[in-house]
Amino acid sequence: MKTTAVFSALAILAATPAAAQDGDLLDDLDPQGIGQADVEEVAVEGDNDGPLRGTVTDDSAWQDLGIAIASFATNRDVDTPANESGTAALGFELANVVFNDLRFNGLFRPVGPAALPRPAYAEITDPEWNTWRGRSAEMLVHGYVRANDDGRLTVGCYLYDVALQSELVREGWVVQPGEWRRAAHRCADLVYSRLSGEDPFFDSRIAYIAETGPKDNRIKRLAIMDSDGANHRFITNGQSTALTPRYSPDYQRIAYLSYTDGNPRIYVYDIGSGRQTLVTESSNPTFAPRWSPDGRYILYSMAVAGNTDIYRVPATGGTPERLTDSPSIEVGGSYSPDGSRIVFESDQSGSQQCYVMDANGSNQRRISFFGGRCATPEWSPRGDQIAFTRIAGNFNIAVMNPQGRNMRVLTDAWHDEAPTWAPNGRIIQFFRTERGSGDTAIYQVDLTGENERRLRTPVGASDPAWGPVLP
């Protein structure tokens, strides 16, 4: 006998667009800020048998875990702005996004909706167990999509253990039609976190530099997209070159470098309002702005009289504080998650290597001693690893621990650089430059180095910056 239960529905509502406030921003920019506007409750049928038994604890077990992700059902197939073919077609697309999220993270062995029977609406809370056992599915993802009278969509997501014939977890969301992919990413996050015990990361966004034009005269614009490459949009119009974006820890802002009138400036772009603030302006070469973990400061490098050092400035602008002071070149900088240390690159040993120092610039010590050079270091959100560009003939993405030990190279191409971490510290994105053409594209790889994929972008792409999980 089924019992009626209640689960929370997160309303994902697009904020009112705000006009851009700078000449370099697109005039028709819609920042589409996402807010946790309200929480609703939706009554659904189903059992919840408590905690998962036999939770997987290592990568080898995860990779053997078969997950069937069937097309999301609908109570009635009606028109929706989210899909011109109706809610039934949208149900397939929802399941396909979940499938691709779980397929490319290197932990599971999912089967998507194209290879599975489409369940009826009544089966979402009462699965046909024999159907899924016969397909060797150990876990089953069911879901539904329902068009509401107010134009929004209700999306439900259920995870079942097929062997135990029990529900493990469920959740649902009410979304605007234009935000249906967020519901799918939330479903993938729910499954991923429940089975792995890891923090979610699919419902997040990437800032990057969009590149067009010939190799020797590239137009570089700031752009944003979902973590899987969907919902791309430009932020700047290309009148000035944009470089090295980074999300603030609260996801509300993006710091980036812009060359306006040939002079480098660090701007902070507010995602919700579309406005941006000038943080620094100088005729001196300036590089690689990075946020402090508390969002109060921006770290960057600047060359003065031929000497490049690392500086810190309040995120709202103000007087910079110089953190390094040596005749060598110090570039970049990435804070440890607790804000106590900074990893950076320097040639003070005679070649480009990675160093760690205290947040005030003291106690500098080299950590890279593995041959070749070390560049663009980025501290993991977990604090246990540092990703970097290893230069030893080719440019490749590698990781090491904060002491410089246990170095592993994850990619094997001609020119990979500029790693950025997923919010949970399990996936790394970077950009790859093709030999000869100079074309650039964003790729991602997991920590095994075995699951690499290219993210689709409408134009060339470089300098990715993975933002936090969306609120």
UniProtKB/TrEMBL annotation:
InterPro entries membership: 6-blade_b-propeller_TolB-like, Tol-Pal_TolB, TolB_N, WD40
The UniProt record lists the keyword tRNA processing: no
Localization terms from the record: Periplasm
Major localization class: periplasm
Pfam families for this protein: PD40, TolB_N
One GO CC term on file: periplasmic space
Signal sequence interval, chain numbering: 1-20
Gene3D superfamilies: TolB, C-terminal domain, TolB, N-terminal domain
Keywords: Cell cycle, Cell division, Periplasm, Signal
TolB N-terminal domain sequence ranges: 81-167
Keyword Cell cycle in annotation: yes
Any one Gene Ontology BP term: cell division
Record's subunit section: The Tol-Pal system is composed of five core proteins: the inner membrane proteins TolA, TolQ and TolR, the periplasmic protein TolB and the outer membrane protein Pal. They form a network linking the inner and outer membranes and the peptidoglycan layer.
Free-text function comment from the UniProt entry: Part of the Tol-Pal system, which plays a role in outer membrane invagination during cell division and is important for maintaining outer membrane integrity.
Family note: Belongs to the TolB family.
Protein name per Swiss-Prot or TrEMBL: Tol-Pal system protein TolB
